[in-house]
Amino acid sequence: MRSSIIVPIFQSPSVLSLFLKSLRLTVEPDTQLILVNDGSGAEVGELIEEFARKIKAERHGEITVTTVHNQKPHGCGQALNQGLAIADGDHVFFVDSDLILEAGWQSGMLRTLSDHPDAGMTAGTLLYPQTGGVQHCGIAFGETLGRHLYLNARTSDLPDSPYTVQLAAFALFAMTREVRDAVGLLDERYFNGYEDFDYQMRARTLGYRTVIDPRVTSYHWERRNGVHRAGNRKTNLARFWKSWGAHIENDITPRLLERLRDRAADLSHYLPLDLAETRAEAADFWEALSGAGAIDRNTLLDYSTTVDGEQPILLPQILSAELLTEPRPLLILVENFVRLLDNRMWLAQRLETQSEDIVVDLHGNAMGLAELNASCWPGVKVR
Question: What is the CB neighbour count within 10 angstroms for residue 167?
């Protein structure tokens, strides 16, 4: 079955060269490649045409290549629509030009679509090249905020089977021809942001869904996301929530509780400790645990006001000294677990007293203190 791969390109030559090399090595037979140069300049245009010549020579009869060159950037939505207008495959892929594609990504995504015929859409698991941690494997939502699910987790800590998410980025995405024909083109009023979320919401209203298979991985640099992306973020975000806010489900708390149940069946003897800045989501989490009778909210220790922005959380400086030798295990809630990685000394000392402490974060991660301690070296954080 023929695949159409659409690559919108607003990119630097150095990053694009890495991507094209990985694409050349991993693209599979019976594929239509559509490369849309969205105003990246002459040097990028030459790289694209050189790539097209090599693929045609090396894979003649297996791979077809169509190149489109926009003199000025029109935005990701329009670039993808240009590709959709000429895509003739049974499956359509959207692939960003700042990926390093891993072998088997294409057949892996086709397998996911085949195994979940009622879904219609799938996305790959994207990893930070700097750390190997998860950059993207779906979006989970609170009441007013979307989050990258399992952000910075190891791939070995992800669910061991495919799972459904509300939304996923179009950076590495695939859908059936049925979905493409039913949903149509992207809404170009979203300029370089949220057009992918809007498209999937439109598909969801027709009964389709997005499935992530954690076995399908590639690396994502997150480079050159398009002109005026930052300036249009508020407008794009407002348009999305105005259109779809009533259809978004608050699924981050249920995911947190599920991960936590995998860690500890009985939390009644745990001392809850709050280090999360996003107060609405933190309150939802503690309320859910309290409502289930898992914890006593009267024992909650709230240190959230001592946490400063996106800086590392230095536990010896903000926690009372008594907590270091507290005999009860701690249940620690934090925005993202990497914020605690600059605490090697405190964690090592805490483990001398208690080894059952659990850290959960608002991206759906849950881990024991010993696992967190093992991640502290070298402590490089990306987000």
Answer: 25
